[in-house]
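Researcher: Predict the fold of diguanylate cyclase.
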Amino acid sequence: MDKLEPLDHCYGTTLEEIERTLRYALDIVSDGIWDWNIRTNHVKRSPGWYSMLGHPPDSLPEDVDTWRSVIHPGDFERVMRNFQAYLDGESLIYAEDYRCRCRDGSYLWISDHGRFVEFDEAGKPTRMIGAHRNIHRRKMAALALQRKNDELLALNRKLEGLVEARTEALRQANEALARQVEAAMRLSETDPLTQISNRRHFERSLHGEWQRFQRHGHVTALLMFDLDHFKRINDNHGHQIGDRALVAVSRTVRAALRDEDCFARWGGEEFIALLPETDQGAALLLAERLRLLVSQADPSLPLGLTASFSVAAMQAGEGIESLLKRLDDGLYRAKQQRNCIVGC
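Model: Structure tokens for diguanylate cyclase follow.
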């Protein structure tokens, strides 16, 4: 068997020619190549590399420091860190995009890829080859797009913030308006002196309860009372004492009633209460209890208070006007006697 000839002799091509061919091929697929002899720190760069950065061929020192000197300061730490990670075997590839300084002082975005191609007997790398590509246009377009996206994101966040602030302001305004409406409604239904229901509110409550009575027949009673000799109080002691008496009586009676009972100032010194689910007998017992409480409403007043009461329960087929007239007539009779209760 014939002895094998070296590869270069077999094909009639020297290793130098093979490398030159590879460099030509690399120049076609890249804008510049570099060849680093790790043992000597010598770096050979292709003419395309110099041309890409605006330098005459072979016009810069052929070492690693030349490469370091052209890297943008803003990219330098990242590139060095990742390059060292490849040298130390911590990373399987070396591939970075960064800016290189051109001869005129401007910076050009390039893509840099490299790998080990030769090793010594111990397996340590002795040679590394890499290729640069000019990606400036693509990178600038990507950065411009990123800036636009960032601007749009910032604008969206600003708009969202404005919408959120506007929504919150609208919510607060609505809540304030609701509170105002509620306060206005409360004022429209409340007697300003005694802070109990006024006649308007009572009449609306009475109408609703009367309709419920017509549909379902639930027992309901009304109670009306009038402070005895109230004009004498105002004439002898002044309206301030009279108002104090009205407030004290209202507070005392309201505390003795249920939440579902509607208690109102009917006019002047007259008061009325709507008592759902209460029959005539229970209403009379309540009236007696309230009659005693009225006399104890404000012991500091210059004279004692008494009241006359009328009690009436709703009756089938009876209208509201008839019911109120019956109650009013009963109160008239009670006032003839003073400090008593009349059921009607």
